[in-house]
Amino acid sequence: MLITPRRDKLNKIVILNPKGGCGKSTLATNLAAAYAQRGPTPAIMDYDPQGSTMAWLERRPADLAAIHGIAAYKKSMQATRSWQLRVPNDTVNLLIDSPASVNHDDLRELTRDSTSILVPVLPSTMDIHAASRCIADLLLVAKVDRRDRKLAVVANRTRKNTKSFAKLMRFLDSLGIPIIAVLRDSQNFVHSAEQGIGLCEMQPSRVQKDVEQIEKIVSWLEAWPERRRDSTSVTSINRQPKVRRSLLRRPSFSSA
Ligand SMILES: Nc1ncnc2c1ncn2[C@@H]1O[C@H](COP(=O)(O)OP(=O)(O)OP(=O)(O)O)[C@@H](O)[C@H]1O
Ligand SMILES: [Mg+2]
To answer: N or C: which end of the chain has fewer CB within 10 A?
Structure first.
């Protein structure tokens, strides 16, 4: 069972989608770099036994803005679990990179007390199906309440003018879940990962379009206190109807 930190006012951003290779670590590291550039020092917690986020952090040049790394996938015999997962007291923004397969208990634990949950989705039909199952589990198993507006999708390696993207949009629209950014398929992501940096730390003329999308995600994430306030002030009369499992289990997508 995974354990995640609890602390009031911690901006806990969880990135998940059980589909391997959809861009969780790419998103986590790029957001960490963007937060590091703005300050204060963010923390990134890696729950994936592959440790790719921690490896990225090890490659990070020492002269760049610091990011605190927590290798949550490692089990230490020397330290207690809570010591191992300790988030520095002055941390405001915590990014959580999750592994490809997450059981129901871990899904509940990972998302508990989260301020935002990002689901990166690749454009293929299979990936969109997997993402819709992931969203169904978030709503029905982890009991993430859509009215809290903490759940959003990031379309990754996507061309907007495809049939599958339009269907993904319609499906998410029907659930009131926003697609907050569309990341193009670009070697910039690959090169930045290799160097332990974020896109925002690359030559601006080369990455402007991609950085704009990362900035869009950060703006959405930063609005978490307002989103939370709005959701608590919504009267029950305005609340959306309950999600039916059938709605979530039967999205039909065709290839682009
Ligand atoms: N927008 C993009 N353009 C080009 N390459 C990308 C993009 N996003 C991710 N990649 C590349 O795709 C590969 C998989 O991405 P990433 O490791 O972020 O996925 P993941 O969801 O964390 O995978 P896993 O489930 O194995 O942890 C990496 O090599 C990454 O550099
Ligand atoms: Mg990963």
So the answer is: N
